[in-house]
Amino acid sequence: MAQAVLMRSHQYHQRQQYRMADRSGTISVLVDNLRATGANIQPAGDITQPFFSVKGLVITVNGSNVQVFEYADANAADAEAALVSSDGSSIGTTMASWVAPPHFYEAEKLIVLYVGESEAIIDILESVLGPQFAGR
């Protein structure tokens, strides 16, 4: 238990480091930053997940779907990010069944979810958002 709390604290401080760099506080800034890496970004529609309180936007990053959830402020995003288990298998009281490994990222007031195995997509997301805070 203490190790899990320590790990969460470390992950929180990692997220704070990226927050201070102001890398992607809004969806439009995130899209601009992703495009700056050379990635092809396209909007792909809205999404609702039962475990998040806000509606999200699906964007494609070089053809792969990435879900982006924008909160009113960073504290609201932090509160919901704290509900995600370290491996992404549960969010609050919801047990998730993924078709591929989930990768959760947080920056400012965004939570970003990529469900997939493409190292290229993961590298792009991490170059903009920093390391995932949960997932496999």
Walk me through the structure.
The structure is a single chain. By secondary structure, the chain is of the alpha+beta class. It has one domain (2-135). It is 35% helix and 28% strand. The chain has 4 helices and 8 strands. It has helices spanning 2-20, 27-36, 74-81, 119-129; strands at 41-47, 56-61, 64-70, 90-91, 94-95, 102-107, 110-115, 134-135. The strands form 2 sheets. A 6-stranded antiparallel beta sheet has the order 1-2-3-7-6-8, with helices on both faces. Strand 4 (90-91) and strand 5 form a beta hairpin. It is globular. The two termini are 20 Å apart. The model is unreliable at 1-24 (pLDDT under 50).
Gist?
By secondary structure, the protein is an alpha+beta fold. The protein has four helices and eight strands; from the N terminus they run ααβββαββββαβ.
